[in-house]
Amino acid sequence: MEQQIRPLTYDERKAAEAAFRRAPFDPQLSESARKVYLGISSAMANKRNEAFQEFDLSQPVIMSKRASTESHIRPRTKSTFS
Predict the structure, then answer these.
(1) From CA 56, how far away is CA 47, in angstroms rounded?
(2) What phi and psi, each to the nearest 5 degrees, are found at residue 33?
(3) Cα 17 to Cα 13: distance, rounded to the nearest angstrom
(4) How many Å apart are CA 38 and CA 15, to the nearest integer?
(5) Is 33 or 59 the better-scoring residue by pLDDT?
(6) 43, 52, 78, 82: which has the fewest C-beta neighbours closer than 10 Å?
(7) Rounded distance, CA 7 to CA 67, Å?
(8) Across the chain, which distance is largest between two alpha carbons, in Å?
């Protein structure tokens, strides 16, 4: 089944923006906008779940020595060259 590529309508863009901001769906928008909102919201929820599954949250986090000492390194000052 081949889908036709077309630009989003105004309603669909507003629904997409709301989904990315995790804002509630505006029920005054069109049915096609609702489908866009639900699709993006669902995809974002699945991506968050996959990200958490990559880590075993029951294990303590072990930082490397370099990562733990980097916060103590002073930032370099801007030098001027002639």
Answers:
(1) 16
(2) -65, -40
(3) 6
(4) 9
(5) 33
(6) 82
(7) 45
(8) 65
